[in-house]
């Protein structure tokens, strides 16, 4: 089933100029970018986004980290996008992530883990609407534009 999922390139990856390399991996794995923006999350917005973790020991530092610098947020579309993206992203901590995954390659530790990917279709729905309105998501089709001869 074709699905949409939410993908965030976190402040650590933005600061380390790893955005291009991460987007390249996403595209080479057949995901279609149907929405994308750069945003600086306020502490309030980051707290809301990660509300399910409220009360856990890592919650406050996570909110600080996610609001410390801009993030790049995308909607990605593919067959079984939620599961497929999670596979490419790898486990939360790079120490536990499989070789070749984005977190294994780029993450510093379990908090500064470079990317976020929705963990279920239900989360994807909530997370996509957290960042994007319907008119910011584009269902584009590939077109092989002909080369134009300039006179
Ligand atoms: P993410 O996939 O965005 O979902 C929740 C985030 O909380 C996670 O990535 C990490 O950035 C952070 N996180 C989860 N577990 C821990 C932990 N044990 N210690 C520190 N940060 C964590």
Walk me through the structure.
The structure is a single chain. With 151 residues, the chain is α+β, with helices and mostly antiparallel strands. It has one domain: 2-Layer Sandwich (Alpha-Beta Plaits), CATH 3.30.70.141. 36% of the residues lie in helices and 19% in strands. It has a four-stranded antiparallel sheet with strand order 2-3-1-4, sandwiched between helices. Helix 3 packs across helix 4. The longest helix is centred in the last third of the chain and has 11 residues. The model has no long low-confidence stretch (mean pLDDT 98). Adenosine-3',5'-cyclic-monophosphate (CMP) binds next to loops.
Annotation field: number of helices: 7
Radius of gyration using CA atoms only: 16 Å
Question: Which regions have little confidence, pLDDT < 50, spanning 5+ residues?
Answer: none
The number of domains is 1
CATH topology, what is it called? Answer: Alpha-Beta Plaits
Q: Could you estimate the helical fraction of the residues in percent?
A: 25-40%
Oligomeric state, counting identical vs distinct chains:
single chain
Shape: globular
**Which class of secondary structure composition applies to the elements?**
alpha+beta
Give the SSE order as H and E letters: EHHEHHEHHEH
What is the annotated CATH architecture?
A: 2-Layer Sandwich
Going by CATH, what is the homologous superfamily? Nucleoside diphosphate kinase-like domain
Q: Compounds present? A: adenosine-3',5'-cyclic-monophosphate
CATH domain class? Alpha Beta
As a percent range, the share of strand residues is 15-25%
Major pleated sheet: 4 strands, antiparallel
Note the gap between the termini: 47 Å
Roughly what is the average pLDDT, rounded to an integer? 98
């Amino acid at each position: 089933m074709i699905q949409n999922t939410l993908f965030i390139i976190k402040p650590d990856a933005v600061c380390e100029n790893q955005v291009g390399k991460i987007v390249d991996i996403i595209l080479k794995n057949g995901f279609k970018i149907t929405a994308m923006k750069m945003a600086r999350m306020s502490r309030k917005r980051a707290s809301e986004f990660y509300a399910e973790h409220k009360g856990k020991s890592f919650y406050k530092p996570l909110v600080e980290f996610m609001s410390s610098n801009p993030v790049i947020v995308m909607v990605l579309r593919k067959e079984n996008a939620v599961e497929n993206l999670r596979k490419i992203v790898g486990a939360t901590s790079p120490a536990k992530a499989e070789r070749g995954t984005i977190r294994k390659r780029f993450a510093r530790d379990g908090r500064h883990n470079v990317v976020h990917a929705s963990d279920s279709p239900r989360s994807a729905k909530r997370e996509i609407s957290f960042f994007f309105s319907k008119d910011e998501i584009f269902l584009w089709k590939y077109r092989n534009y002909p080369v134009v001869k300039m006179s």
